[in-house]
Design goal:
This protein is mainly beta. About 5% of the residues lie in helices and about 30% in strands. The chain has one helix and eight strands, in the order βββββββαβ. The strands form two sheets. Strands 3, 4, 5, 6, 7 and 8 form a six-stranded mixed beta sheet that branches. β1 and β2 form a beta hairpin. The protein is globular, with a radius of gyration of 16 Å. The two termini are about 20 Å apart.
Length: about 120
Amino acid sequence: MAVNDLAASATYGPMTPEQLLAGDTPVKTDAGAAAADITKYQLIAILAAGTVTPFVVGTHTAPQAALAMQPALTGQQCPYAYQITVNDALVSWPAGAAIDSYAKRRAFFTGLFRVGKLYASA
């Protein structure tokens, strides 16, 4: 893949896009105050108060799941996608036997937040 060429004939680093989507579900987004530090593409939970926090298996449920779209420190607004079919390989997954494989994630997340996988075309 080519580098990002600038108009002045210089280049600006390599172009290595990340493929976030793994399906054709419409993407819906929102934002909430971070109750803890959050990293980009981390699985998070939307709490009743409208805040977001890192997803904890056994504490949070699948309907609370969302994907952090940008990093946020505690108290900052964190944009997230709550309706999305996301590339399984790109998400920062929490530890927990309930979702420790692709098959388990597909079975666990069956609501607005879904997990998909990218397949190479021939």
